[in-house]
Write a structure and sequence with these properties.
This is Stage II sporulation protein R. By secondary structure, the protein is α+β, with helices and mostly antiparallel strands. It has 2 domains: about 30 residues; about 140 residues, no CATH class. Helices cover about 55% and strands about 20% of the residues. It contains 6 helices and 6 strands, in the order αβαααβββββαα. The strands form 2 sheets. It has a 4-stranded mixed β-sheet. Helix 2 runs antiparallel to helix 4. The longest helix has about 30 residues. The radius of gyration is 22 Å and the shape is globular.
């Protein structure tokens, strides 16, 4: 019985440690991985889950996508694209309102959490991203999202992958990510060495 209790306790502690590690790793990832600040998502929330509300969500989505398409294709960074779209927020809101069939619409930039998603060569890790968000009515229904940068919004949903321009943008992000990771790794390694005993420093 005592052996069983020890195994149970050990197993429970192991699960807790693994869970704690995963949380710490996620925090570390979001603080160090440049993908979060170099990606711009697009998020549309429907008024409700009623059939008409869901249909209206897609009509509003399409209207906004048509309006910002030129800006998205010209973008060479998420920051510049966000700046360009921020200057047109009122116009985007008007476009969305015209397509919402009388439902109130709110258009704004925010940071929100997204689950992990895999689109062809691109893997967007779970975490908090900057996004242009469109809330229709109560914004209580199922939502729709994609990425403005890298360009993911203008490909068929059945084959949701990066467009050609999106692939080039993704390459820039991954190159930046690799550079930042090397920089961060070197930084943390340097800090770690300060706390290592003298013999460990000599062996590094």
């Amino acid at each position: 019985m005592k052996t069983f209790n020890k195994i149970t306790i050990s197993f429970t502690l192991l699960i807790c440690l693994l869970f704690s590690y995963s949380l710490l790793y996620q925090v570390y990832l979001e603080q160090t991985d440049p993908i979060y600040d170099n990606t711009l998502r697009f998020h549309v929330r429907a008024d409700s889950d009623k059939k008409e509300a869901q249909k209206r969500k897609l009509i509003v989505r399409d209207a906004v996508l048509r309006y910002v398409k030129e800006d998205v294709y010209r973008a060479d960074s998420a920051q510049k694209l966000k700046q360009n779209l921020a200057e047109k927020t009122e116009e985007i809101a008007q476009v969305a309102a015209n397509a919402s069939d009388g439902k109130p619409v709110r258009v704004y930039f925010t940071k929100e959490r997204f689950p992990i998603r895999h689109y062809g060569i691109a893997i967007f890790p779970a975490g908090e991203y900057q996004a242009l968000r469109v809330d229709i009515g109560k914004a209580a229904g199922h939502n729709w999202w994609c990425a403005f940068y890298p360009n993911l919004c203008y490909t068929p949903e059945k084959n949701f992958t990066l467009s050609e321009s999106g692939k080039k943008q993704w390459k820039k992000i991954t190159e930046l990510t690799q550079g930042k990771w090397l920089e961060k790794t070197k930084h943390y390694f340097t800090k770690l060495k300060k706390f290592l005993p003298y013999w460990a420093k000599r062996s590094v």
